[in-house]
Design brief:
Blueprint: H1 3-9, E1 14-15, H2 20-23, E2 26-28, E3 34-36, E4 41-43, H3 46-51, E5 66-69, H4 73-85, E6 90-93, E7 109-112, E8 119-122, E9 126-130, H5 135-143, E10 147-148, H6 160-166, H7 173-176, E11 183-190, E12 195-198, H8 204-210, E13 218-226, E14 228-229, E15 233-241, H9 244-256, E16 262-269, E17 275-285, H10 293-296, E18 308-313, H11 314-318, H12 321-330, E19 341-346, H13 350-359, H14 363-366, E20 371-378, E21 394-401, H15 407-426, E22 430-431, H16 441-448, H17 452-462
Parallel strand pairs: 5-7, 6-7
Antiparallel strand pairs: 1-12, 2-3, 4-5, 8-9, 9-13, 10-14, 11-12, 11-13, 15-17, 15-18, 16-17, 16-20, 19-21, 19-22, 20-21
């Protein structure tokens, strides 16, 4: 390492460069590329590469040249350096739950992050975990000590590194923002093969670029997450409404009064009757009497006779989506194409835009067990640089969760997604970037708006060879 290299990387950085003596030898693989001999597995077999050519969305299929299963971050760094020299692209893959090929690297290298799933030091207010760990395993570890991450995704079998690269939203986001807002420190491998630590005070530009940065500046390998005291139980309320206006009014009221610890909602196809409108809220509490239902629900205008109220342990409630997953798997629906669309609408136009979109959708456009999730959140809770929400104090998540019976139906849904996104964008709304439809670099530049320059500068600094995460086509 010479002085110029150190200065370019930044005077404040903390870097650990993998040992050149132990990693210098290369192996010629059947896939016709030369990559370093490393402690972990590097595979070119057709079945391994074929598995990495698909994701949960089951729409895009891109076969890599090789798949790395690293034993350490040093393995990731060694392969990234070698890939840069050979002009190969590299993508990190956690649980492969992207919906449009974002974790793929056609004719490049996919890094299977699952081996980097260690659960490290657990302290009173934080835990350090490998990026390949799932939120399910993190919750298991923290709940045993009476702690929890402030924000959990609805589906816990997602990797920590994967959701932090996007943002990470959940039922408590209206209070705590995204999962990236709860990160204290990150370790990552940058596009030029450095292993760096970063936080709000150490390499803050990289810290900002990694959180919600779509993997464009580094592969997250480890994260230190803030924790809060976990409740013992969750009392969950499913409330039903005759129309969208009634639902929106009660959601806005519940948010302004901080009535629920978790606040979400859905618009569900209801056969010939059109749609069912559902508010879903949860009140967390510790040992002692359950919350008084009449007090919690006072002044709400739902159809009280139709209300469904359940009371579970906090951990059981957090795992509620797993029951739906098992049901979908049993019916063969989990592996269908999943052309999902996630957006945010500003409070002032949310009801109107959602109503207009719904008039053009039917249950056939959502597929089996499809739904629209629709709920408000406070935008000031979202603090990370690259999180994009409308410029109002309240925004509504407006997400179309659906599956397609075949490729033709999937392509029609992709076309719909693009049209709906443009309508949302023209109305001042924003994309949550796990959505299934093609985006150009110009689209991403418009999406990030005033934050684009910071992301582009970080890309030039930390991935000058344009190596990382090609699936988004950001640069």
């Amino acid at each position: 390492m010479n002085r110029r290299t150190l200065l370019r990387a930044g005077a404040a950085l903390t870097a650990t460069l993998a040992s050149a003596t132990s990693k210098a030898t290369t192996t010629t693989l059947d896939c016709s590329c030369q990559l370093p001999s490393i402690e972990a597995g590097l595979y070119c077999e057709k079945d391994v590469c074929a598995a990495a050519a698909n994701d949960f969305g089951n729409i895009i299929h891109s076969t890599p040249r090789a798949v790395l299963t690293p034993a350490s971050a040093a393995d990731v760094a060694a392969v990234v350096r070698s890939a840069r020299e050979q002009r190969l692209r590299v993508a990190a893959r956690g649980q492969g739950h992207s919906t449009y090929g974002r974790c793929m690297a056609a004719d490049g290298i996919v890094v299977d992050m699952r081996p980097l799933s260690e659960l490290g030091e657990l302290r009173a207010d934080r835990i350090t975990v490998g990026a390949g760990a799932t939120w399910s395993s993190v919750l298991d570890a923290t709940i045993a000590q009476g702690m929890t991450p402030p924000v959990l995704t609805n589906y816990l079998n997602l990797s920590v590194g994967g959701t932090l690269s996007i943002g990470g939203i959940g039922g408590t986001s209206s209070r705590f923002g995204m999962q990236v807002d709860q990160v204290l420190e990150l370790e990552a491998v940058t596009g030029d093969g450095w292993e760096l630590k970063c936080s709000r005070n150490l390499n803050p530009d990289l810290f900002d670029a990694l959180r919600g940065g779509l993997g464009q500046c580094g592969i997250i390998t480890r994260a230190t997450l803030a924790l809060t005291r976990a409740p013992d139980r969750a009392r969950r309320y499913q409330l039903f409404y005759p129309d969208l206006a009634s639902l929106v009014a009660d959601q806005q009221s519940a948010l302004s009064q901080s009535r629920f610890d978790e606040l979400q909602g859905a618009i569900i196809p209801d056969g010939k009757n059109g749609w069912r409108y559902q508010l879903e809220g949860a009140v967390h509490y510790r040992s002692g009497p359950a919350p008084n239902d009449d007090t919690v629900l006072t002044d709400l205008a739902d159809d009280r006779k139709a209300a469904v109220i359940t009371d579970l342990t906090y951990q059981e409630d957090a795992r509620g989506f797993e029951k739906l997953e098992l049901m979908l798997r049993s019916k063969g629906l989990w592996t269908r194409p999943q052309p999902w669309l996630f957006t945010f609408l500003s409070d002032s136009i949310a009801e109107r835009v959602a109503s207009e979109v719904m008039q053009e959708l039917s249950s056939d456009d959502l597929g089996a067990f499809g739904r629209i999730t629709f709920y408000p959140t406070r935008t000031n809770a979202f603090q990370s640089l690259l999180a994009r929400l409308p410029n109002e104090s309240v925004a509504f998540a407006f997400n179309i969760i659906r599956s397609a019976a075949d490729e033709k139906a999937a392509n029609q849904m992709l076309t719909q997604n693009r049209a709906i996104y443009e309508r949302v964008r023209n109305a001042g709304g924003m994309l949550y970037p796990v959505s299934a439809f093609p985006m150009t670099s110009g689209d991403w530049k418009a999406h990030f708006g005033s934050r684009w320059q910071a992301l582009a500068e970080a890309r030039r600094r930390y991935d000058p060879g344009n190596v990382l995460t090609p699936g988004y086509e950001v640069f």
